[in-house]
Write a structure and sequence with these properties.
This protein is of the alpha+beta class. The chain has a single domain, classed as Nuclear Transport Factor 2, Chain: A (Roll), CATH 3.10.450.50. Helix content is 28%, strand content 48%. The longest helix has 19 residues. The N and C termini lie far apart (37 Å). It holds the Pfam family DUF4440.
């Protein structure tokens, strides 16, 4: 791996650690003000709406990377990843308040000045095998 690839890998790990912890301040520093965040449900968030939703309800419980590839394109990086996530449902669905899903995602990081920030994130559910 190159130094840039290592940096993007570290930033992705920091982003997910912040998601799990509900660390809005850390995420604020990692996310571009121009962020477009597309959830597997097709809901689209901006940086502001994503952080506001996280403050109100942090759904993230656990996260496990299944596969990850990083493509460096100068001042842009594309991270393609599959992962397993455990999340709290909102509103809770009785009797189960947790859901485990597998997701594939594309994360686009770009340099803004000296810093790398996430500018686009798109996720979709991986269908469960029958």
């Amino acid at each position: 791996m190159t130094d840039s690839t290592d940096l993007i890998e570290r930033l992705e790990a920091e982003r997910w650690a912040a998601n799990l912890a509900g660390d809005v301040e850390k995420l604020d520093s990692l996310l571009s003000d121009r962020l477009e965040y597309i959830h597997p449900t097709s809901k689209v968030d901006t940086k502001q709406s994503f952080l506001a939703n996280l403050r109100a309800h942090n759904p993230y419980i656990a996260y496990e990377v299944l596969d990850q590839k990083i493509l460096m394109l100068g001042s842009t990086a594309v991270v393609t990843k599959s992962f397993r996530s455990t999340a709290r449902r909102n509103p809770p669905i009785v009797p189960v308040n947790r859901v485990v899903v597998e997701v594939i995602s594309s994360a686009v990081w770009t340099q803004e000045g000296e810093d790398w920030r996430l500018i686009h994130y798109h996720t979709t559910f991986i269908p469960k095998a029958d």
